[in-house]
């Protein structure tokens, strides 16, 4: 699958860009001054599969708390990168350089990007080895940007580019860029226009993708999948966050599912299944759930569960294995498009599938 070429940016123990796997990140919803709760949530996010965690750092008090959080997290989970999320107070961003692995700043909170506040941050981050995320938000562009460009994707791109130019002029390349909006069409357009603008100036910084304020439940998941997925399908994106109005631990599974749907993650089993129709030869939904329960722990295996011979094998696409209805109470098993066993009684078909996976060396026992 094509992916946009970028430089590689180290963010503490995590590498972003350079063709590496897309990094899943999230953000704590704890009070940063509650150090115990914040550290505990970082641990839960890591357990869920998150490698990069951002924490609100809005005042000097939170900056001091971040020092303790960083120290405690690094002692237990040294493979997790920590990010200070700073708005409105450039002095706090400056204080976090050399403490956290990355500082996220909003260009809308700065005046002239070539002025002292931003250039001082760039210089200190360069010396300390701290990365910067230039996080442009559709809803908080600087007044001077809005007056010239309007509240548009073009304005978002103009804001990002002027800060990127300063970074390049000062020899700083540990930069990641985001162009977030709650409107999916604005978000997608902004990233695509930014890629074109960077290409024109020979810039190859990695991109962090996300639909901000996506919401909760099905709405938040669909908005995130549409926006993030559209860009990943274009080969754009090096790290993602699914922003849900739910406990942040819930974001990780959704992010992984988006990456897997785009062919960028094989850390768990993947299942293809037809929706069912009048030709379906068994109760598709419960059968699919049983197959998932038995094989869902196998990383990188793609299994198709199809209700009839019309949808399998032809519609199984690139599945590794197929479980296909062949007649009332009968199942045919496939390896790719090759028939392995015909007319297996349905009561024993799942066991037969597991036997096939064992024979192929694909099977592993479910971890305790």
Model description:
The chain has 368 residues and is of the alpha/beta class. The chain folds into two domains: 8-261, Dihydropteroate synthase-like (TIM Barrel, Alpha-Beta Barrel); 270-359, 2-Layer Sandwich (Sulfite Reductase Hemoprotein, domain 1). The protein is built from eleven helices and 15 strands. The chain has helices at residues 35-48, 60-76, 90-96, 116-128, 143-149, 153-169, 184-200, 217-233, 249-261, 284-295, 346-359, and strands spanning 8-11, 14-17, 23-27, 52-56, 81-85, 102-105, 131-137, 175-180, 207-209, 239-240, 270-273, 302-306, 321-327, 330-335, 338-345. An eight-stranded parallel barrel has the order 3-4-5-6-7-8-9-10, surrounded by eight helices. The chain has a five-stranded mixed beta sheet with strand order 11-12-13-14-15, with helices on one face. α7 (184-200) packs parallel to α8 (217-233). The relative contact order is 0.09.
Note the gap between the termini.
34 Å
Q: Tell me the structural class.
A: alpha/beta
Count of separate structural domains = 2
Per the CATH scheme, the topology name of the largest domain is TIM Barrel
Q: At CATH's second level, what is the architecture of the largest domain? A: Alpha-Beta Barrel
Number of helices, where a helix is a run of at least 4 consecutive DSSP H or I residues: 11
Shape: elongated
Number of DSSP E strands: 15
Low-pLDDT segments: none
Tell me the name of the CATH class of the largest domain: Alpha Beta
Give the ordered list of helices and strands. Answer: EEEHEHEHEHEHHEHEHEHEHEEEEH
The share of residues in helices is 40-55%
